[in-house]
Design a protein that fits this description.
Number of helices: 5
CATH class: Alpha Beta
Structural class: alpha/beta
Distance between the termini: 89 Å
Helix content: 25-40%
Mean pLDDT: 89
Number of strands: 7
Strand order of the largest sheet: 5-4-3-6-7
Low-confidence stretches: none
Strand content: 15-25%
CATH architecture: 3-Layer(aba) Sandwich
Length: 187
């Protein structure tokens, strides 16, 4: 050391010392915002306001009617529930579908990639609100609907037009909203 004072040109400015810490804290803030407000990951159907895709599914269970798009054009709104016996959220929504059916709402089912015996057990255990159940063994109708997974429920008006898509299980507190969407579909 020569004992000479550092010149102002060689001395780092005060803010340069704190810059790495400020950048790190900014990064942490962005991560926290992303954790508390994640981007929506639901994929809504592009078929809202359009006719139901044409399909004719065989029965999901012997002795029960299957489901065809023509069944949904009878003048009355319907719920079409895309579900599967292997789907855990489908079990959560089963009581709500039972409640809607008990209120007189026509509930139709599309069982996706399911086995007959598993479907029978599911309905025996969790309830059977369905007027018809179509077996979508290869998932083609589900894909044609733009469904991103199970469960999903569609409100179909009396002319067979998709009016609303509910992604995920229907919860008890959502029943009034579903009833409202059905009423809107009557108009």
């Amino acid at each position: 050391m020569t004992g000479e004072p550092e010149s102002a040109a060689n001395k780092p400015s005060r803010w340069m010392i704190w810059l790495p810490l400020a950048l790190f804290l900014g990064f942490i803030a962005l991560v926290m915002i992303g954790l508390y407000r994640p981007a929506p990951r639901d994929v809504a159907s592009t078929l809202i306001g359009k006719p139901m895709p044409e399909f004719d599914l065989p029965p999901g269970l012997p002795g029960r009617p299957g489901l065809a798009s023509a069944d949904l054009k009878g003048g009355e709104p319907h719920l079409v529930n895309v579900f599967a016996s292997w789907c855990l959220p489908c079990r959560v929504e089963a009581p709500q579908l039972e409640r809607l059916a008990a209120m007189g709402v026509p509930v139709e089912g599309i069982s996706v990639r399911d086995r007959t015996e598993d479907l029978k057990q599911f309905l025996a255990r969790y309830g059977d609100p369905f007027q018809r159940i179509g077996a979508d063994d290869d998932g083609q109708v589900q894909l044609a609907l733009g469904s991103s997974g199970v469960p999903e429920t569609y409100v179909i008006d009396g002319k067979g037009v998709i009016r609303y898509q509910h992604i995920g299980e229907i919860r008890a507190e959502q029943i009034p909203m579903i009833l409202e969407k059905l009423e809107e579909a009557r108009r």
